Batch of 2 targets.
Target 1
Amino acid sequence: MTLTSLLPLIALALPIIGGLAALGAGRRNRRLGIAVVAGTAVTTFLITALLALAAKDGLLREMTLVQIAPPVWIVFRIDPLGTLFAATVSGLFLLALIYAFGYLPDDRRQWRFHAFAMACQGCMIGVAFAGNLVTLLVFYELFSLLSYPLITHDRTRVAVAAGLKYLVYIITGGAFVWAGIILVFHLGGEIRFLPGGLADINGSPGLVLATFACLVTGFGVKAALMPLHGWVPDAHPAAPAPFSAVLSGVMVATGVFGILRVMFEIFGVSRLIEMGVLPWLGGIAGASVLLAAARAVGEDDLKRRLAWSTISQMAYVLMAVSTIGGQAVTGAFVHITHHAFLKGGLFFCAGLVATVTGATRISQLRGLAQRMPVTSLALTVLALGLVGIPPLSGFISKWLLGLGLADAGAMVRLGVMLAGALLAAVYLWPIIYRIWLPTDDPRFAHSHSREASGWMLGILIATGMLAVILGTAATLPGFPLDLAKNAAQWLVEPPP
Amino acid sequence: MMFSTELLLPLVVLLPLVAALTLACVRIGKRRLAMVAVTTSGLTLAGVIVLVPDVLASGRLTWSLPALTGRFELTADAISLLFALSGAFVWFCATVYATAYLSDDTGRKRFQATSLFVLSANLGVVLAGNLPTLYVCFELLGLAALLLVIHDGSEKARKAGIKYFWMTLIGGFFLLAGILLVRAMAGSDSIEPLPPGAGSPVMLWTAFVLLLIGFGVKAGMVPLHTWLPDAHPAAPAPASALLSGVMIKTGAYGIFRMVHVIFRPEGGVESALSAWALNARLGLIVLWLGIATMLVGVILALGQHHAKRMLAWHSVSQMGFVLTGIGAGVWLGSEGAMGTAGGLLHVVNHALFKASLFLGAGVVALHAGTADMYRLGGLWRRMPVTFTCMLVAAAGITGIPLFNGFVSKCLIHHALVEGAAREGGDWLVVAEWIFLATCAGTVASFVKLIGLVFVRASRQPPPQPVRDATGPMSTAMILLTIPIIVIGLQPGIVLEGLIVPGLKTLAIPAEPVGHYLDTYYLGPSDLRSFGTVLVGGIALFAVGTRLGLFKLAAPAWFGVDIWYRRAAVTFVILCRHGGKRAAGLRVTRPQPKRIKRTRSLPGQMLTVLDERLSAIDGTRARRNTLYARLDELRDSIVRAAVDESRLRTRGQRKAESVRADRHLNATRMMAGLIATRLLERTMALTADDNADRSVSTAIEKIGTERDDFARMAADAAETWLEGGDPGKLLEAGRVDPERDAGPRPSTAANRDWWTELCEFIFRPAVRHWPATERSDDASLTRAIRALLERTTRDPSLGLGLAFLLLLALSASSILI
């Protein structure tokens, strides 16, 4: 076992160990705890980023770890899509964990938050590096369960209710995935991820279709594919802001990641086309885009509106992938990364605003810019990025998605995507407009105290700058666009 | 020379951008701000001028950089430079003017910074070398110009800004769709002719329509022009000049590139005749849209009384001229140089004279206090410089010979006449008549403007002594009038200097332009047409003023604007409604208050729609009705308590109103507490479907005891104000709705387990209901909930320990 093959394991284990260490150290000395958390997060990010750059051109390494039962092994592998996703996860967690130092009140419970969050991060990285379905499911279920304490961190009635609902959904989804895995093993003989799909899946077309449906349903619960999205609008607002950012940014994306793995590396492109499921998937995803965006327009609570927006944006990815065109798939992968940082940043803003002014509803935000100009500027940049205004990062993914859909001749889906982007403007613009209006509200108008905690503001500025940099410098090698292009090429047209 | 001219391209685009960003971040005084702004726009103008000889020599200059999704490319050919040069010159003059116009404005730094940013985006559009660059700069232009429109922050400006924003954004989406289609058909990013057989006719036409809408919104093309007459007057005068003079031209530039480059078969390549025929048909569509635009613009301009709004409508009309010229040029195919040259020359001309007119109108509004033409008069004595400049500009726009407008209008006229002679162009005779009528209307309108504002004796003395424009303002206006006269006398400077080389680069034969200059320019037929127009215009003005025709206005529903607004409002209502209904919330009245007040048919239809939608789901509607009644009841209890308080403090109110106010507030608070508690307890009963009658009984009972509650609230308030504990009083008078409600049938067994389970899973977390509402669970749900809550009260510790155990097991199994 060389160092390279151990790297995924290190990237996985480091956050978990770091979280436990922070739990112990932080309760004694806050500074030590901050140092441990920050150090671990930065190191994990660097490892995953390096792996992403190294794995750009194809499968790097596959490593078998341990055997659970005779046909079932825990396998890790380093491949372009997985490393891109792992880097995104680590990046967003880095921002969220540091933000949490400013957001959470300074007491013993914050270390519990960090410990569970870093355990979640480790498990998500495990999902990214999984080499077969069982490994994926093990880590998937682990981080789903470990998210419950984070969603219910505030211990209010609302949070507990939301967490309960989340648990029911996730456990049901997990059951579907298990059913799918068993069926795949029964039909195909193995459950490893192979680019281009498994060699043969023998069975009646109905059974194969049922397998696909089980897997997509199971992962679709996490991916917030309508009508399996019910947990999202309750869980995302109920969680504390740093974890809401993670939920919306990468956790829903993990469900999408699962569906992508199933589509490209279990079933494979040609088999999917034969089965004829792609138009259905595209249709359901398209309906999700429009319905979720329409629901977002009607929400007054800021975090709930952002949660509905997440459902809509993640459905873009599935809609684009259902065309199986190179450009569209590239756009979908890039969108996962860019959306993670944009949506994460928006949730950071929402948390900051709620902490400093107590305002959680959009109707209460009038005139925010007078009190918190930097936050308002960051909110404007991030919201415009999500709408897709050039040269921010959201524009890059929107352009590529549109180009891919147009290239593939999917005109209806292109129209749906543009309508969804227009709806994104409809539900994000009133926020931007309202915070820049003048007001006499005493909460906002006459205040001379510091805008917000340094941690939170710094992370917010960093996320805003990230939106600008990822947009303008997108074509530089090593940036998400480049990595996504390689990943798409490797998955859609795998080398023989 | 080490310095290659290509580098000027990014410099010219980036210099104003850098200056704008720097200005946004620093504090700066008035004089230095003026210096920075004027210097930057001057340097940009100088840069564009320096580019001219190199571009004319080599035909095309390109510079690119890998960025965004491919390359960020800037290309300059003669036509781009035409737009860039006129734009940069107008920008320079407007910036000079703004330094004086905004000298009292605290937002001047924001204005200048935004203005420079918009300049940079504008140059980016006209110098764009490929489709992504064009789109990026176009979007940034539209968004940044929003800040110019809402600059003075008034309600009118904000409303205009909102309309402008949404139309620009939606136009941007259409543009994106069109560009993506073109990109998919062509396979490459650059702005070049589509390969033959690129896409099906459906795709070609769809792309054309989408691009036309996208560029047409910016160009102010009918029927997408409705943002223009609101946005341009709402902006401050220098910004109006920039918006009207330069920014809307980018829309025309886009349409030009679209029909002349993208949808035009490549010259020299074997292309089917059908491709040329398609191109000609597209040109005809653009032509007719231009005709419609010019007519609508001039008719509505005649009816305006506010000078800036009138000028804005004239911008719409003159953009119609530009589009007609471009369309005629395409319709005539290889002989279309006259039309294209006329359209492009009119772009330059309109930039000059419209900017001059807006700047002059700005001076008038600033110094005479109003821009209403009917209230001004006799200003020629007091404002001679402004009068002269506006007279020259009006001469330009009406097309008086020896001024610049005459040349471009005659070129377009000739193109229309030739187009009518072409096969398939019979209806263009009508187009020519409309053209002449519009020119006459323009004459009438400007006779009205100059006559009413400057020449005629004033009706009432102006409110303050009227000064003329001084310093920077007059310099700017004079600078703008110079080219109007120069181009009028020597049109060859622009025609043969920039337009003909540009046409040659695009492989369009340019002989007709030279032919025109030799034969027709200032020839008898042109002068005859102008004479007709002049006479017609003056006659129209005389008749119109005598008969009061200019005061007529069409009903509001006649224009497209109100339908756009209604469509948008209906859409938002449906979204809000859908969300609330799905979440089981109380459905509120539709948001815009207008709909309540209006008795119009559409308003009533919307209200009916709203009621129908809320009646569909019976259970929730029923609960909502009950909630509404309880809410009213709560309000009435509080009101009764307020009356009681006033009654008790009647004697004190005259002497010690502070004490009376405190009593009132305390009573109101106590009444609120009592009423809310009552509401919560009663609401808890409504969960049962069969509990209607018992709930209604409870509500009536509470209603009859309302005065008792009011008295209770006032007593509790007095106790509290004296420092006592009101709790006992509140508890003593406690009403138990459950006791009062009477017997209610047990409903727990009514719902089956399947319904219960579905409700449990799919019901949203209703945090907005009072906490006591959650007493509706039947046995199965309650059991599950109790079990889960017991075991998951805080499962975190259990989860954490389980995870650690798992870790330990895995670690040991790996290591062993």
Note: Chain A has a mean pLDDT of 88.
Target 2
Amino acid sequence: MAISEPIVLPHATDEVRLARTWAQPRGFWGWFMNVHHTAIGVRFMVTSFIFFLLGGVLAAMIRLQLSRPENHAIGPDLYNQIFTIHGSTMIFLFAVPMMFQGFGVYVVPLICGTRNIAFPRLNAFSYYIYVVGGLLLWVGLFLKTGADAGWFAYTPLSGPQFTPGKRSDFWAQMITFTEVSALGVAICLATTILRQRAPGMTLNRMPIILWEKLVLSFMVIFAMPAVMVVSSMLLMDRTINTQFFNPANGGDVLLYQHLFWFFGHPEVYIIFLPGAAIVSTLVPVFARRHIFGHLAIVTSVVATGFLGFGVWVHHMFATGIPQMSASFFTAATLMIVLPTAVQFYCWIATIWNGRLQMKLPMLWVFGFFFVFLIGGLSGVMLASVPVDWQVHDTFFVVAHFHYVLIGGALFPMFAGLYYWVPKITGRMMNDLLGKVHFWLFFIGFNMTFFTMHFLGLRGMPRRVYTYPPEMHWGGLNMLASVGALFMAAGLIVFIVNFFQSKARGTLAGPNPWAAGSLEWATSSPPPDYNFTELFTVNGREPLWDNAPNQPIVSGVRDDIPEVLITNSLDSEPQHKDEMPGASIWPFLTSITVSIAFIWSIFSPWGIAYGAIPVVITLIGWLWPRGHSPAPRQPALEGRWSK
Amino acid sequence: MIYSRLLLATSLAAVATLAACNREERELRPSPSASQVVNQAQVSGLNPGANPLPTPPTPSIYEESAYAVSEGKTLFGQYNCSGCHANGGGGIGPPLMDNNWIYGSQPQNIFTTIVEGRPNGMPSFRNRIPEYQVWELVAYVRSLSGLLPKDVAPSRNDQLYVKPPEASMPKQTPTGITGEPSK
Amino acid sequence: MIAASSPMRAAAVLASFFQGEHNSLHPAGPFSSNIEWLYWVIFWIVFVAFVLTILAFARASAKTYSRAEEMLPIMKDEEGDRKAKWAVGTAITVTVLTLFAVLFMSVITGKKVEGMTSSNPVTIQITGHQWWWEVIYPNPQADQTVITANEIHIPVGKPVVILTSSADVIHSFWAPSVHGKRDLIPGYSSAFWIQVDQPGTYPGRCAEFCGLQHAHMGFSIIAEDEATFEAWEQQQLKPAPDPTDAEAQHGREVFLTHTCVMCHTIRGTDAGSRVGPDLTHLASRNMIAAETLPNTTGALAGWIVDPQRIKPGNKMTPNPLAPDDLNALVTYLRTLQ
């Protein structure tokens, strides 16, 4: 669809009125009432980054403990809690909330060219419920109730007999909190992408990052329930005496592993795909051309979304799966290499035929290329059943998944932060400090984790709190621990850089990178109403492709928070919808839901009695608001021609 | 604004910390004195007060620790208490999950019963079991009739279902010949 | 440790990275050799893939690198895109073929490893416990059944069947120089083959997180020639001899009247509990506490007195015995050849 006929504005949009209509509430209670996506998105990013730093502190403690053989600095009880909370924090409280929720909630409505995310109150609720889940896990750690059965919490070790007390229950409910949060955001993002794109942003022109968030949202919707089911089954086994995982009564401990990895492997792609999407967004900007193979990359992302659900058994090759079915999962695992390889080739081709400008974000993208490539290729080795028998559950796997997850999420995350922080704060990050951060982190990372490949091949199992000196693992472990210091130093440089940039960085202006997507078409930081004028779109990179006389949307009211709703395929305007405004009810509902969830750890009646306040707050939330005053402006007219 | 938020968070954390208890305490390395095997515990018999009873540790690191009670449950099977008392329902020996306590329900009473044995078949475990394990067994035995808090008492084991787990047992008010010992 | 004072020391440390029998790349039998072969094949494939991809990135970057401070205008290069389509298409085809090759070799090796059988092999039942390994050589006649712990003797050059089960949580049986790992899962029993072609001692460890002392849950596979193996088996079938000297006799008395007897078996005495490892031939083992300590008088005494210092959380109680009793007990245990 091309927009041929410019629209004549009925009257100029009133910025003052827009600002009043969309104003975010201020003050103490205002903070809890705010439902605007930029505020919630930043909160997701800041909170998950704090959890990342906390998880990093635990990682440092792990490296301290393992730096020499038979070290008794940290006993086994505390060590088990530390590595469990480290893994759980990094996956559930950092990687997904940062890469999926944080970036998604902040940038998706901006890239769509709309004024707020769909279901903004659900979005705000998702944030609070995530924070409570994270606090639950961490308060538990400080009360000696830190989960200690690994981030995967295999039964029967995590079950009622072998983990007495409430440690596993805290973990299981943390899962429920964070997954409810991810599901809520998935619904918001999918709806925003499908129904709120700027007119003209047809599926065919949709930027890759939106495609990826769409695929991701559906992956979350299909994968997260599996882990919520399995953690709830664990909780029920522990508190109300069910027998799901009790072999003596016909239960099955492997059932747990199947359900967990049915979530767990898509989860890896839920963490990696946002990283790949950031790379696909940044490469064309810094190669100064459209991305090569847009269709191929989109197809790869969609294919990954499907294939990601067919590979979970490769986490279980050592359980004694029959040869035939193991071969099937080897094939599926090798198959999923292909979409990622296609994306790599397209990125190379884009750079090959572009003009590479090595700005700071691009440096991190190159870090991603190197690190993730190693992780992906060691994944090919792990896909082979016999090789997996040797390296499964050793430090080789620890090295592999840190290369994949830090490579696939953390490097793109820093790329994305250096790229979008100017949009979020309005100020550039310091280039020199950014480079120091990169090299410290890059060298430290490879020092720590490349070493672990050797440790794994030399037979060091995962999750050991110490190791005997006769195994000669001391030297490599010491090297790995020294690398961790470099990474920590790099992170400190980043934090210094962020705060100095926030205080006195050079002003960024609306589009410091001369990028093509719509978030750069508004001021930095964006106003509460995101865009003064709502754009129409003429290509995959709107700011690069738009005609000089590109029309803008008229007829969307500015005296009530109204957004334009377009159809899913062709993004043609269909109607207008009034967005819910600021409200305290999402916060209150998150409190009542939290009470019910936490109460259920101690008594099953928590769900029954806890439901009563939940229903009350939901009634408050959903209480009819009444109709807005009759439209003052003429209704939207279908003047978009094909 | 930011400070008031911080204040709120800190006070919430403080409340949570105050609410902390010994439930998750895991004493992996018992003290040397608790590691000694017990070679004497006065039989209180029918005249409590005449003989000093063994003093349970205060606060009871065993009765408040889910780990210790769970260890007690494991020992109950491994030391073959279940051979006579079954899973608390009784058999050759009396049931332990009812409210009837022939020799008293207090930790000291049960401690004495285990160490000294009782007439009509309860053997003496004198010199056989270190003190800390006796206290763990005592805590578990008390959990069988619901005398421990529900978040400390064990949940089900990975074995054939024979009775509701200790954490689901209704609390039984102890009765018996000696009843509550005089304080 | 890395910044060694002398080059010699540095070289020694470097060499230590690659030495040892607990190593997937030091195979001692047909199973691990096959896996090692497959490992190196896939390794070289992915290594070449890595180098080619990195070279492509380097070439692309060097070719188009611009130092411009300002962001450059957007360019279009349709001729370049046409060429790139061919290049990317070729790369994808090569990738697909390579992945098929990896799949093929992986399945073939898997079949080879799983397809090994033999008639009338030695059968060993391994049961994982928190945190030690029970080793049983089952025999229809109860008195011909060898029961030991943590040290698995096998005849060299012959396939051996390992039957696995777990008494509590999931463990994983892994001796990297012998075979890949196999999980021991409660409620499941499974069987697999191992074979060792070089006589020697091959250490193994638990590879699935199993709680507090997962780190100290080792075992070893001792491969010896047929005659030595049979002699060992005959010796293991005997009950413990009655101690002759007074101290050992006192030691046995200590064993039978203290906590030891609550958990351990010594065949030929009244001690018959199956909670902990069978100690009938304790002195014939090289290591104690699941390969944590050498089986010496001092280490054994230290272990008995305070096992919770060495393996915090393990199931053995501390035994603060009087020095005389302790010496006698250790003397007795050392007689259990």
Note: The beta strands of chain A are 356-357, 534-535, 552-553, 562-566, 573-578.
